[in-house]
Target: Helix-turn-helix domain-containing protein
Amino acid sequence: MALIYRERLDIGPDSPQIMVGTHVFHKEPYPPLRDRGILICGISEGRDFFEVERVDTPWHVLAFCLTGRGEVFTPDGVKRGFGAGQLALMPQGVHSGYRRIGDAPMLHVWFLLHCTSRWDFLNRAQPAIFHSQDGTALLDALRQFHREVLRFNTGDATSLAVPALDYLCLQLERATKALSSKQGWSEQLEQLFAHAQKNLQHDWSNAALAAQLHITTTHLHRLCTQHLGETPNKIVFRMKMNQAKELLMHGISVGEVARITGYQEIASFSRRFRQHFGYNPSQVLGKHLASAGHQQIWD
Model:
């Protein structure tokens, strides 16, 4: 997970906001949010200039629009508008942002969600826009939660912050339920490496793999480590070695196996094979030929 990220908040003084966050330095702190996978949540009404941009942030951003119009943007010039009754998703690790457009105030409810398995289904290669009728319910729930947190932070023992948070989370779960059927990063990575497995003769560099998902090599490395427990290079190398061993066990020559698995030099292939398994590829082939009643005449 990225420890270094950039965040730009260009919000005018005439754009009112309320928010609740997990840390003491947030406007209204309430640490139990973290247990629900929420970093910060709030309500903003862009009345003058309102623009937010984030680079390599380890959290997802959801913005439910109730009035006015907004625009999601990426550094490559892609712009996608969204308005009342729509939800803008800006996934973790993707350089993106959103801004108010037009003259009408942009009232929206927003959430910054920790990059945990709970929100895996929000992972995407690019920002996305969805229809959503849950903005008003979330607005009411978040306003109530904010009021109870204010009471909690003033020491009011009658604060209902806990049940208010429970209700807010139920509303958020309902609002994102339709998205949970979408394909997350785990599924996308599995499909990516299944495709690579079938085409191991190609040069599956980190750049080539990342290009398949339209993400950076840094993002790919982070996702593979997080979801698969290995770096992309190690995954491809392990697949190549397993395929090579299987081919050798079926009597394919060392030179042909090296070619199939993308090695231009037999010596290089043999060295990597020995480092991985602890024995030479010719030994695997020799054992197959001996069991088949043939005499090995090549190395």
Q: What stands out?
A: DSSP finds nine helices and eleven strands in the chain.
